[in-house]
Amino acid sequence: EVQLVESGGGLVQPGGSLRLSCAASGFTVSSNYMSWFRQAPGKGLEWVSVIYSGGNTYYADSVKGRFTISRDNSKNTLYLQMNSLRAEDTAVYYCARDGGTTWGYWGQGTLVTVSS
Amino acid sequence: DIQMTQSPSTLSASVGDRVTITCRASQSISTWLAWYQQKPGKAPKLLIYKASNLESGVPSRFSGSGSGTEFTLTISSLQPDDFATYYCQQYNSFYTFGQGTKLEIK
Predict the structure, then answer these.
(1) pLDDT level of residue B95 (50, 70, 90 thresholds)
(2) Which residue of B has its CA nearest to A106?
């Protein structure tokens, strides 16, 4: 069974850093397209970053230069390193897997709050 | 960047109704379009991929159509479990969502 479990969210001050993790089971992270999405409180969904099976990475303009997506094949885990955090980065962050039909598998989400 | 516009933003309907949600892309995306259902506090659930393909396990009352820039999601006979927010998403060029359509009980 495919499972994605996010962790690492919490309260951080503006300008601070946080690393999110997405532990996967039931499939191999490195063989799949994996993405991070986010949803600000009461708002819609926004794509944040993707890492393709070949290792190429891409970012939304809103996070480019501040966020880094990566994966640890030995731990079968996806990461999102978030630096220079801003109030507008406050959101629930979801990891997702493209199982061949676009983003068919999602984690439960982890809340990031950027506030002083 | 490709922009996605959904209509309506809110839709009031009753159990048993047939409802349609529309999604327009700012440029042609062929059939690289997905529909998601999201309930409060939960992750999105994929319903339709490649504009008209039903994801495994999704009830057949859900259907999608369209190509190019105009797409629709239709629920043929609303069930109590269907009241939720629906999002379209293009994946022709990275990933962009519509603003969402909240389906409410009339």
Answers:
(1) very high
(2) B43
